[in-house]
Amino acid sequence: MTFAKILIAVERPPLAFKVAETGFALAKALQAQVTLVHVNAPALLYGTDSAVPVEQIENHMMAAADQLLADLTNRYGADLSPLTLVLEGNTEQKILESVNDIKPDLLVIGTHGKRLWRDMLLGSISETIIRHSACPVMLIRETNIQ
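Above: the chain sequence. Below: its structure as tokens.
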């Protein structure tokens, strides 16, 4: 199996940096094409109890996500010229849709799990993605198991 296309899905720092660093290092070693994606939750979830208009929240979230992807690209993958995508919606659903649309050979994602492997996966975003992804998934842990 060749890994010519790698999809790197990041959430928020500091885990986003660890995931991007790993994904871009692998892409460089394999001379693979990279797509870097971030999924924002719908701004409406944050705007219902706020005096700030939903549109303003959306704009802020989009700008922050664009900046994160630019920072990750500049730090780890500028020489790879990755495609960057900021999506909005359910994280699992949008990442799985990206896998189906882009058809990568590998998906690199992070997990915040701090418990045992069996317990960590139950109900988590990464568990859902692993179960339903059409391609192999590389899971990057936020912390080491103690």
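The CA atoms of residues 113 and 124 lie 8 Å apart.
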